Amino acid sequence: MGAAGMVDAVRGVALAMAILCTLVCCLRLYKRWVAVKTFEMDDYLVIIALLLVDGYLALAYTFTYYGLGLHHEDVPSDDAVVWMKIYYASLCSTLVVSAIVKVSLAASAMRIFPQQHHIKLISRYLILLLTIFAISGVLALVFQCNPIRAFWDKTRTIEPVPDSGACFSAEKTFAINMYQGVLLFLFDIILLILPIPTVWKLDMPTRHRVLVLLLFGLGLVACAAALVRFVIVVYVQNTTDMPFITAPSLICTIIESALGLLIGSLPILHKSFPVSITSRRLSRSQSRAGARWAASHPHSATVYELGNSWGRKRGDGILKISEVHTSFHEYRASMLARPESQERIVPGNLGGSDTSAIYGLGGGRWGGVKVNVSSTPRY
Asked: How far apart are CA 253 and CA 229, in angstroms?
């Protein structure tokens, strides 16, 4: 690929990922707010991660106007210092962006799998390690030159006193980049395989399993991008054409961070994926219990629909139980034909203290009727 093609590639990838990440994350946050009426810690982390990722993508897009993707000899001399400043900013921010995306993924795993203690434990350790790793790594990159301006002002490095204008050697810089890259790759692998056994055991149709596999396939692409960046880091050690070779490395970083953000938000957008695993299991058991009750009491109500949402518990998703919809006139006719029935539906005031709800709903408020269920069995 030529220099012009490399510049277009960086701009295209940065712009596409910025639009896609912003759209998906905003839809995810909107759905979370509509579903549970509140945000959890992972939602706030996604907001922070989205702002950082979009800022990083804007930095990459701007980078192309100051020589990124061009060969060294084609970069205007007036842009050389600006290029080094933006390169320095990208080096220092890459670790922060990658870490916050991974922390948001770990927090999402803790919320989606609240009953899986091994997932919660591993996720907590990952968050702690990522925080320590990011802080220490950023400090090493920020202060790799003394003073900091010596990174882009190379005249500072030839002063007679080494401490007044010294930067890390090429070997030390390479070691830091490889160390950080390997750890980030290991974190990617752990986050990718951590939920697979639990998700695969869910009672889902085959098409939903395929969608889950495709989702984890995106995670593999992100890991592959990290591996490609390793190769580029090794190659950069022995090249002087930094403006050109930095472009594919930046593309890999963009893909890795953006896909991580998408992987954490796409499951919430898909209606078949549970807001939490306990919600799905509880929903399935309660729906079966409601179906058994309706089958054993064919004359007690006209059942139109099962599985309507009720009883929202903050933080643990939507708890779905069956809601029985009745037609008052049909029901009154059936009751008049069965005087021995122990259940009664009485129109009028719905707030009476002598009523209780079928199937333990409490309150008995169903569409303008009052249910007297003194002997209604409970499950």
From this structure: 7
Nearest to 193 by CA among 220, 229, 166: 220
User: What pLDDT, on a 0 to 100 scale, did the predictor assign at position 59?
Assistant: 94
Straight-line distance from the first to the last Cα atom of the chain, in angstroms, rounded to the nearest whole number: 67
Distance CA(157)–CA(144), nearest Å, equals 12
**DSSP assignment, residue 358?**
G
**How many angstroms separate the Cα of 190 from the Cα of each of 102, 273, 317?**
10, 21, 25
**What whole-number distance in Å separates Cα of residue 91 and Cα of residue 17?**
19
Q: When comparing pLDDT for 370 and 179, which is higher?
A: 179
Tokens of 27: 């839809």
In angstroms, rounded to a whole number, what is the distance separating the alpha carbons of residues 293 and 124? 42
Q: Residue 122 — very low, low, confident or very high, per pLDDT cuts 50/70/90?
A: very high
How far apart are the C-alpha atoms of 100 and 124, rounded to whole Å? 14
Q: Which residue has the tokens 């790594």?
A: 137
Residue 320 or 108, more confident: 108
- Is the bond leading into 147 cis (omega within 30 degrees of zero)? yes
The SS3 of residue 285 is: helix
Residues 48-74: pLDDT tens digits?
A: 999 999 999 999 999 999 988 888 888
Integer angstrom CA distances of residue 263 from 25, 38, 256, 364: 10, 21, 11, 42
How far apart CA 309 and CA 323 sit, in angstroms, is 8
Residue 145 bridge partners (DSSP)? 167
Joined together, the tokens standing for residue 113 give 């799998």
- Domain topology for 3-273: Rhopdopsin 7-helix transmembrane proteins (1.20.1070)
Cβ-proximal residues to 57 (8 Å cutoff; 6+ apart), any chain:
14, 15, 17, 18, 21, 254, 258
Write the DSSP assignment of 109-164 as a string of letters: HHHH-TT-HHHHHHHHHHHHHHHHHHHHHHHHHHTSEESGGGGT-GGGGGSSSGGG
Q: Predicted confidence band at 155 (pLDDT cuts at 50, 70, 90)?
A: low
Give Cβ neighbours of residue 204 (< 8 Å, ≥ 6 apart).
Answer: 212, 272
pLDDT over 70 (residue 364): no
Q: What is the pLDDT of residue 220?
A: 84
What residue spans define the domains of the chain?
A: 3-273, 278-372
